[in-house]
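Hi,

I'm pasting everything inline rather than attaching a file, because the server keeps stripping attachments. The sequence lines come first, and each chain or strand is labelled.
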Amino acid sequence: EVQLVESGGGLVQPGGSLRLSCAASGFNFITLWMCWVRQVPGKGLEWVANIKEDGSEKYYVDSVKGRFTISRDNTKNLVYLQMNSLRVEDTGVYYCARQRPGYFDFWGRGTLVTVSS
Amino acid sequence: QSALTQPASVSGSPGQSITISCTGTASDIGNYNHVSWYQCHPDKAPKLMIFDVDHRPSGVPDRFSGSKSGNTASLIISGLQAEDEADYYCSSITTSKIYVFGSGTKVSVL
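And the predicted assembly:
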C-alpha cells in the first residue's frame, strides 16, 4: 500500500524556521520525482517545489525561492522541506505528493504550518 | 506564475451533468497535454481524478471525464452524485518547468 506521511509542522514565529519531512512507503521511491504542495486556509492549492529522483534537479515557486529548500534521502525514503525566513503568508497545510510526468498521483494527508507571532 | 482560472462554484442536482472550466495561457495549458484534476474533501488527502487531459486513474468512476481546447481545459461530471460534492482543482505544468494549480471550484449537489 502506498503511503506518504508528513510531519514537522507546528507554530513558528515570523522569521523562524521549520523542517518538514515526508516518509514514503509502498512504492519504488528512488524512481519518482516528489513534490510539496500547500493550501492556505480558505484558499486554493499552491505548488511549492519538486525534486528529481536523484536530487539533481529542483524547482521552486517564485514566492519561496531562496527561503525554502527541498531535499531527499533515498536510503531512508524521505523527502524534506527546509523552510527558513518564514512569513505569515506561508501558513497552511503542506502536502507531500508523488509526482508522475505532468501530475501528482498520490498525496499525503498534510501537516499544518502556522506562522504567527 | 498566476493561478489558472476556475469558476468559484458550480452546482447541479443529482443525476445532472456539470462542467468545470480551467483557463490558462499558452505557457501552460495551451502548450502541454499535462492537465490534471484533483478532488479535495475537508481533512482528507487530495485525490487525482483526471491526468493528461482526459485519462482516468484506476478506481475513478467513468462519470468523470476531461477535455481541452486551446488554453482551456474542462472537467465534466456526468450523473452527479452526492459524494461528488467537494472542491476541485485543475493543474498544469508550465514552460518554466514548475506547476500551477487552478483557483479551485466548489461543487455543490443540490
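The CA atoms of residues 17 and 75 of chain A lie 25 Å apart.

If the labels don't parse on your end, tell me and I'll reformat.
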